[in-house]
Write a structure and sequence with these properties.
The protein has about 180 residues and is mainly β. The chain has helices spanning about 125-140, 160-170, and strands spanning about 5-10, 10-20, 20, 25-35, 45-55, 60-65, 70-75, 95-105, 110-115, 120-125, 145, 150-155. It has a 10-stranded mixed β-sheet. A two-stranded antiparallel sheet has the order 1-2.
Length: about 180
């Protein structure tokens, strides 16, 4: 899937062909997360899990998290990591929004996301939609997502590799 755009700039004609962004490969690691509920009814807790993410810093990033407590989650950062501001002290506001997602060869679905507008990141709010993104990676299918406040973006996930296989084997939700 390519898109060609033609520009006329001061009498010269330029054509640019854009292909969907593609990541290089995967990295994965186990993690332990502690949550401080600040007096909430659930109380503080710690959980273990596995995470995987695409490794090309010049393409949008796909990340997966998996734990027994929260199941499979997926997030997409539309802005390449190399273009994001590493300022960790930036205050962010979580929003909830529904947009469309299309996996090649399937009908579009409406997906509820948790959105971080400041970092152009969306995270699935349903295991069903995280599984759709996971299966798109396994089946080597492009994913088109309507980014909140922006246009649709097609992401071609990298093929699964040894790191992705390690994530899959150690995730209690996937069939490994």
């Amino acid at each position: 899937m390519t898109r060609t755009t033609t520009y006329l700039i001061t009498g010269a004609l330029f054509s640019l062909t854009a292909t969907p962004a593609m990541a290089e490969g995967w990295s994965s690691e186990p993690f332990t997360q502690s949550l401080d509920q600040r007096g909430g009814a659930v109380g503080d807790f710690t959980y273990d899990g596995m995470r995987a993410w695409t490794t090309n810093d010049d393409a949008p990033q796909i990340r997966f998290g998996c734990s027994e407590r929260f199941g499979l989650t997926a997030s997409i950062t539309f802005l390449p990591i190399s273009q994001t501001d590493p300022n960790k002290s930036q205050r962010i506001k979580l929003r909830q929004m529904t947009t469309t997602m299309t996996i090649e060869g399937r009908d579009s679905v409406r997906v509820p996301w948790t959105v971080v507008k400041e970092t152009r990141t969306v995270q699935t709010r349903s295991g069903k939609h995280a599984a759709m993104i996971y299966n798109a990676v396994v089946q080597k299918q492009p994913i088109t997502v309507k980014e909140p406040y922006k246009k649709k973006m097609t992401i071609v996930p990298p093929p699964s590799d040894a790191s992705f296989a390690t994530f899959s084997k150690n995730c209690p939700v996937t069939s490994g």
